[in-house]
Amino acid sequence: MALINLTPSPNPIIFPHFLSPNLSFLSFQTTPRNTGRTRKTRAALREWREYEEAVKRKDLAGALSFLKSIDDPVETVNGSASLESTRSRLAELGLVVGYERDWEVLDTCLNADDMKLVCSAYGFLKDRGFLSNFGKCRNIVLEGPRNVTPTVLESSTGLEVTKLSPKKWGVSGSSSAVLIAFLGGVSFLLSKGIDVRPNLAAILGLAFMDSVFLGGCCLAQISSYWPPNRRRILVHEAGHLLTAYLMGCPIRGVILDPIVAMQMGIQGQAGTQFWDEKMANDLANGRLDGTAFDRYCMVLFAGIAAEALVYGEAEGGENDENLFMGICILLQPPLSVAEMSNQARWSVLQSYNLLKWHKHAHRAAVKALESGGSLSVVIRSIEEAMSSSK
């Protein structure tokens, strides 16, 4: 694959519970016969409480270190290695505390600053057979035609190119209905002799300040409470998450609260943070491999593709497009407008087909996000959905 020169970036780019035993209620009767066994079990339970505390603190390093250590042989007093582990000691009493809890390490990724550590967490779970579909479609970017014209895109998806373009607020179907209702309400009040113009001016002024200084965060926060709009956000972010997962890009977390997203430096109503190690290394070296760029573009446009697949058109994704154009400008030489348009159409088509092939997993991810599930819950629901469809 040919390499594309890229201006080096000083900082790596990060792209935008299950039922468990309550260990505190367990008690054991100590008799001369089971004293040693009880002591070992209590020690094992204390160790698992340490893991629980690490998960609560979002301490990825501590939680991952614990999981890696509990399966290691334990040194005995005479220096010989024992195969007895924390898991096996708990299993002796029929307490299945182990592997069901390993998933929770993913919930600690959100606060991790070291993305290589996040990558290690995904590698750890994959090695133990949890993430069997992680990276399943990593090489899909090598397949299919590269030149995707508007006609090809429409024939493949059944949608016009305009349906796959993000809409400005007030132009899309849902937001235009809100705008019309708002204007209608203002007109009704004026017709009744109620002058709301001073209040309206204040509201518009606040909206302008929100747009300039907060990136529209406050308006996004308010609109996110409207069920149809929130559902669309979930569909959009689930598209990013599932595509990143199938492409083998570790996901640090999904932010659905606009204010929290703003605090974490994410523009828009929500954001999915994923990482591609190959692309990060290429960026650090000032060069970008074409395959890594394709993979990144697929994940980036997957939110638009998800909306188009579910609703027949996309409304969100303006920030995704802006980020895409920002990367394209950094390329040396930069992509032309025609090349950027083709790359965008190709990426949308690839993501659209990928999500269509795995729409059951996408629905499972949306459902898990809608119920307030953590990252581990969402990814586990994806794995279960893909396993049940085989």
UniProtKB/TrEMBL annotation:
| Entries under SUPFAM superfamilies matching the protein | FtsH protease domain-like
Where are the membrane-spanning stretches? 169-190, 202-222
Q: Which UniProt keywords apply?
A: Membrane, Transmembrane, Transmembrane helix
| GO BP: any one term | proteolysis
InterPro entries recorded: Peptidase_M41-like
Gene3D superfamilies for this protein: Peptidase M41 (1.20.58.760)
Species whose genome carries this gene: Quercus lobata (Valley oak)
Q: Name one GO molecular function term.
A: ATP binding
What name has this protein been given in UniProt?
ATP-dependent zinc metalloprotease
